[in-house]
Amino acid sequence: METAPPRVAIVGGGLAGMAAALGLSQAGFKVTLIEARSKTGGRAGSFIDPTTGAEIDYCQHVGMGCCTNLLDLLKRTGQLDAWRRYRSLTFIGPEGQVCPFARSRWMPAPLHLMKAFSGLSYLSQDLRKTIAHGIWKLMRLRPEDQANWPTMRDWLTAAGQSESAIREFWDVILVSALGEATDRVAVAPARKVLVDGFLSHRDAGDVWVPQLPLSVLFGQRLPDDLTRRGVEIRLSARATGIESHGGRATGVRLSDGSTIAADYLLIATPWHQLQNVLGDASDAVDDGESIALIPASPITGIHLWCDRPLTDADHLVFVDRTIQWLFRPTFASDQTGRIYHQIVISGSRDLPPRQQLLDQVVNELRELLPAARDANVVDSRIVTDPKSVFSVSRETEKRRPAATTRLPNLWLAGDWTATGWPATMESAVIGGYRAADQIADTLGRPCGNEQPALATSWLAKLLIR
């Protein structure tokens, strides 16, 4: 008689939940994915432009070459073709200087960025020397010493970085990557971004940009792939508690009064929803209430429809301005001639009122981009998610939980778990893969979903601690 496959219920249809569903379905589990919203994708979603009906991302998401787990998920589910790889960036200096930032194809890491760094012409020679000294000190900073500093800005100041160096280099990289200001973030995630994201491998800093709306990628294509693999996806199904008996989780209670029975449970919701899902089983997670209180950091997307392109570039990085990134996804422009642009501002808690912010951004664009000076803004929309990412402070790093809980068959997954990464798509996928691997291991079904980091060059191993 054939044994029924073990049942797994996953609460949360974001990237972590879907990554776990992929791994567990391939390991022979019967997977039910439970999502409270009408679409999967979690925080990586889109809205409908009322004028054209087009799907517009709330906020632009990008991957990097160092995101080995995200890229693995996209490849395994046949989605890599919908992402474009960029091997260079373009920085717009404070006075409008156009500075290409392209790695060497031949130099080993971390020397592959020397030419790119020297090409940041808006930085004075003295400032470049100061920043290079800071990068060297960060590369040599031991892991055990990283927690000694309250914030990354404290470390930067102690490392001799001037206010100009912080504003014109460190903040440009770190605020957008971490979604938070350097006077709030811990040293460890900041170092992770710079060392793993740029310095350790030639391909690490490549930028991967989606060429379709996130709602198509993660709300249609990815769940369709999971369904073909046998995953049952329950949409508009809100979990209100965990059923348990005899020291084990036995199922998930839904708001309609029904229960989904399972042999294994995985909670992959945002951190601030954890307690709501646990319900009466809140003591199953160590410091669950503390996890729920992890502070959030907002990210703002400013959506502009103009009568002409503001730039020929697909994306630009702005230095020491309100604008941090400008993207020009061609799929979002419409048949009426309106050209779509999106501006991203991370850590956006101190922005001015909406109209003042819009005027400020448009003025910056006209000041810095020649093509924008005669352009007219036909329509605009400002979208701020106050809980876009968790704030990667030193206190947060201490609170981030492991995948395991006090119940032997209940796991956690999400970008907010202790993945070693900040709040990114990579962290979410690692969280899902790691939990799936651990669940499979309990039945002796190792599946090896979690991917290793990019191989470090011999020189990088020598120079980076």
TrEMBL record:
Q: What residues does the Amine oxidase domain cover?
A: 15-439
According to the UniProt entry, its GO molecular function terms are:
oxidoreductase activity
Q: Which cofactor does it need?
A: FAD
Name the positions where FAD binds.
Answer: E35, A36
Which EC number applies? 1.3.5.5
> Would the keyword Kinase be found if you checked this record's keyword annotation?
no
Q: Which Pfam families match?
A: Amino_oxidase
Keywords linked to the UniProt accession: Oxidoreductase
Oxidoreductase: is it a keyword of this entry?
A: yes
* Name of the protein in question: 15-cis-phytoene desaturase
- Gene this chain is encoded by: pds
